[in-house]
Every structure is written in C-alpha cells, then in structure tokens.
Amino acid sequence: MQNKYEALDKNDDNSDIKDLYKKIFPYLKPYLSRAILGFLCAIPIGAFEATVAMALKPYMDSVLVEKNLQISSYIPYLIIGFTLIQGLFIYLSGYLIAWAGSKTKVKLMQSLYNKLLNMESAFFDSKSSGLIISRFSIDASIATDKLLSQIKMLVTKSCSAFFLVCVLFYNSWQLCILAVGVLCFAIIPMSKVRKKISFISRKSVDVAARLNTYYNEAFGGNKIIKSYNLFKNREENFIKILNETFSLGMKQVQVSSLLTPFMYLIASLGIASVIGIGGHLILTKQISSGNFVSFIAALVLLYTPVKSFGNNYIDFKGSLLAMERVFKILDYTPSIKNKENPIEFGKFQNNIKFENVWFEYEHDIPILKNINLEVQQGETIAFVGNSGGGKSTIVNLLPRFYDIKEGKVTIDNIDIRDISLEDLRENISVVFQDNFLFEGTIKNNILIGSPNATEEELNNAVENAFLKDFIAGLDNGIETWIGERGVLLSGGQKQRIAIARAFLKNAPIVVLDEATSALDNKSELVVQKAIDALMQNRTVFVIAHRLSTIKNADRIAVINSGEIVEVGSHDNLMQIQEGFYQTLYNAQFKTREQAEV
Ligand SMILES: Nc1ncnc2c1ncn2[C@@H]1O[C@H](COP(=O)(O)OP(=O)(O)O)[C@@H](O)[C@H]1O
Ligand SMILES: [Mg+2]
C-alpha cells in the first residue's frame, strides 16, 4: 500500500520521450497555432547567421581582393536591415512561445490542483506538505517553463546548423566533410553524460522536496519549535539537507563542466584541421580566400551552439523528468471516487449499517475487525474505548474518507460506495477536534459549505452555535478577518464557527469526533451547548470524553482494539460485571463525573 504512493514521486529509469509528448499534447493543443507560429519565426533567426557567414565571401573577394567599392557601400545598410528583421523575429518567436508555454502551464496546474483536491485521505497521510508543493506546483513549472523554449532553441539551432552546413558545403565540400566529421565525435561524450545527469536530477528532486517540508514545519510548528528550543536541531538538519543540495548541484556542474572543455577540444580540432588543409586548398587555387573566410565564419558559428549543448541538455532533461512526474500524478486514479453511474441519493431516512466491516490503513494490518452495527435514524450513538482503538477510524468511513477492505457500510440499505460521493457527503456534517478554518472572514467560513444561505439562516446558525455575543463584541462583527487557519481565534471560538457551519449545512447525520476535547472547561461548556443544539433531531455518531454526552446517548458502543466488544445503553452496560464499559467507567469517567457536576 505504501509503495502505491511512493511510486508517484519517482522517475522511471527508461522514460519514453514520445510517450511524454503524447501526454502533454492535449494541454498544448489549444495554443498550438501560436506555438507553431513561434517556431516558424524561430527558423529565420537561425537562417540569418548563415546569411551573414555567406555574405563574407562576396565581401572578401569583391571588396578586399578586387577593391570593388560599390559593394562595400551598401553592406553597412544590409547589416543594419538584417539585424532589425532578425530582432523582430526574435521578439515575435520569444513572445509567442512564452505565451503558449505559460498557457500550457496554467492548464497543467489547473488539472493538477483538481487532482490534488480529489486525492484520497490516505494519499495525504503518506505525504509531507513539502512533497505536495514540489509535485503539484514546482514540477509543473519545471515541466512547462523550459520545455517550449528549449524546443524553440532546438528549432533555431538546427535551422542555423542546417544553413551553416549549406554555407560550408557551398564554400568547400572537402573542408565541409572534414569539419562535420569531426563534429560527430561530440555525440559520444553527450550520451555518456546523459545517464549521469538523469540520476543526479532525480536525487535533486527528492532533496528539494525535503527542503520545502522544513520551511513548512518552521511555519506550522513555530510554537513547538520555540517551546522545545528546537532551533539548533532544526537548523542542523536543515543545513544537512542544504549541504546535500550543494553537493548534488556541484556534481551536476562537474559533469556538465567536463562536457564543455571536451566540446571546445573537439571544436578546436575541427578548426585546426580546417585551417591546415584550407591553406593548401587556397594555395592550389581550389577555393578563393573569400570562400575560406566565409567557411571559417560559418564553422565558428556552427560550433558555438554545440559547445553550449551540455547546459541546454541539463535543462531539457530536467523538464522531461518533471513532466514525467507530473503525468504520473495526472494518470493516477484516486481510489476513492464515484463508481460509474452512481446512485443519486436524497436525504437519509432510515438506518445506517456496518456489516462485517474490515478496514486497514496499511496492507495486512487490520485496524477494524468485523464491525457490525446498525444505527437508526434519529439515534445518538456514542463510541468509547481506549485511545488508538479505532473510534475515529469508524466514523471516518461514513463520509468515505477511507474505503473499507471487506464487508459493507450501507445507508438506507444502499452501499455507500454506490452512492455519489457528493450526495453521500451532503448528508453528513463532521466536527473534528481541530477544525480547519480558511483564510477569510468569519462569515466566509460559516457560509463556505452553503453559499446560498439566506441572511436569516445565517443568523440562526450564528445564534445556535452561541456565536452571537462573541460576534457582537467584534469591531467588524461577522466580517472580521480571522487569518490563515483561524489563528486569531481561541479554540472554543473556532469550534463554534465549525458548528455554525454544520448548522447551515443542516445535514441529517452528524459526526462529532472529540469536538470538545481540546478545550478548557469554560470554553467547553459553551461549545457543548452548541453541540447539544446541533445534535437535536439528527442522527449522531459521537466520540466524546464528557460522561454526560456519553450517558445521554441512546446507545454506547465500546471499541477495543478494532472490535466492538459491547453495545447498549449506559445502564445496560453498567450491569455487565467486570465488563469493558464498567471497567472504563470506573477508571476514567467516574472521577470526571464528579468534576462535571
Ligand atoms: N492515517 C492513518 N494511517 C495509518 N494508521 C492510522 C491512521 N490513523 C490512525 N491509524 C491507526 O489506527 C488505529 C486506530 O486509530 P484511531 O481510529 O484514530 O483511534 P481512536 O480514535 O480510537 O483513538 C491506531 O492504531 C492508529 O495508529
Ligand atoms: Mg480518535
């Protein structure tokens, strides 16, 4: 099970470029006309270099050798004219390619974000936040930012190479064969370096993700870091990762920098042999000196891009690897999704049943074992038991945060996996111990699940959640900004906002998982009142530490190590001598009951 998600972060050893292009194509398709136009504009950019080299021959022969001044007088204008036209094409092609590339990126990131939202909870359990940012945002940028511009460069460079070779050939076919032959040697080190670079790139990605996590933890865990004096610990670990980044970066430079001198060597070999043999050809009048100068100019222009090929290649390979990772994610089908033609489900009316339910987070480690339970509409069922027994797990199965392994969970006798996820979740409100608030105002946060609620419904929810006085005391009232994750509020206030949200949603089923456990006595009291109101006339699954909540439940299910060991009312369960509930009651609740009274 673990490997399922791990594989999403890794590059395969033999990725097929053709396959990747096929996958990115649909994203590029809407912008293809501009991209092609951009590529077309890139062709003359390459051709201009050859034209300049070509022009050197008549210049040499007519002006320098034959002293023909007429040609020399219009050459300056030609140069300026050419540069202007070349500039225009560079601008056009740069703009068009960047436009198509950025649009493709936007589209890709949109799909990735959609995928992220639809990922199952188990995926998030297995990932760090840093990894999520790397995978879903940074990779998309790397994949698309450089891809088109690299292709453009390739188009320009290959056109320029093609025309330059033509110039070479025109000036002297003998020298041309020699020069191009030497150039072919450059291919050998390239292929050697390729493998090495892929390996380093892959490692760099892992390390970058770990760095991200450290930033996120410095943000989210800043209070823990302060209170445990973790500065040194954090910093040391961070420096370790930084150093790893450094050595990986240096390795990459090592490999690519070795390539550059090698290319220079090959280039100089080519030029040296051409000059050696070229002299002979001029002396024997096989070529003119204009031919020779034009040839050398074209050759230098041809070798220049070859020399920088190493660095371009690193960028290009990086893009491809990132693209591969991006498509791994996009190709992944979330395991919790609607089945084909799901049943449309209205409002829950009769009962919820767990039938022989087995569940595991990790392969072959059962967490829930053969759970059987039937809950009637309107009933309140409380789950009690030791920590880690599986109480939260059971209630998380209802909205399908996780899917079960065996058995079935039904709602009104329909398997919840047959119902559309939207309809199912529409029927359930969940209030956790720590509820997530979004950056925005109190009002935004209450309305988030029910944007069409009327002013009256909103006011009722605020009142029922005992938020009215609190909001009235704020300068900006319900429009008060609460900061990311609601950091500007107390725990009790946050809980009440979450409860107001649930009131507005008005779902018939309510799941309360330790909703008051993190609160101090005073806040707990008012939150409890709000919760009591929310429980009215609803079917409630409650995990609570307050004895009164448990006692008032219609039935109590005792969960021990993933099994339901006792079910019944408080009085019934207390009858079972030495039973699980009685033992638990004596050990935990009794003292608390005295405190509550
Ligand atoms: N996301 C998860 N991934 C893997 N194991 C988990 C996850 N959540 C809980 N567990 C494990 O499942 C067991 C039951 O946990 P939980 O349902 O949270 O217990 P309770 O709510 O009764 O305290 C525990 O052993 C816990 O370690
Ligand atoms: Mg729990």
Plain-language structure description:
With 597 residues, this protein is of the alpha/beta class. Among the domains are: 2-331, ABC transporter type 1, transmembrane domain (ABC transporter transmembrane region fold, Up-down Bundle); 433-506, 3-Layer(aba) Sandwich (Rossmann fold), CATH 3.40.50.300. The chain is 65% helix and 10% strand. The chain contains 22 helices and ten strands. The protein has helices spanning 2-6, 17-28, 32-65, 69-118, 121-125, 129-171, 173-184, 187-220, 222-227, 231-283, 289-307, 309-331, 391-397, 421-426, 442-447, 455-464, 468-472, 491-505, 521-535, 547-552, 570-575, 580-596; strands at 351-360, 366-376, 380-385, 406-411, 414-415, 428-431, 509-513, 539-543, 555-560, 563-568. Strand 4 and strand 5 form a beta hairpin. Helix 2 (17-28) packs across helix 12 (309-331), helix 4 runs antiparallel to helix 6 (129-171) and helix 6 (129-171) runs antiparallel to helix 7. The radius of gyration is 35 Å and the shape is elongated. The two termini are 47 Å apart. The mean pLDDT is 86. Residues 125, 361, 367, 385, 387-393 line the site of adenosine-5'-diphosphate (ADP). The site of magnesium ion has 3 residues, from helix 13.
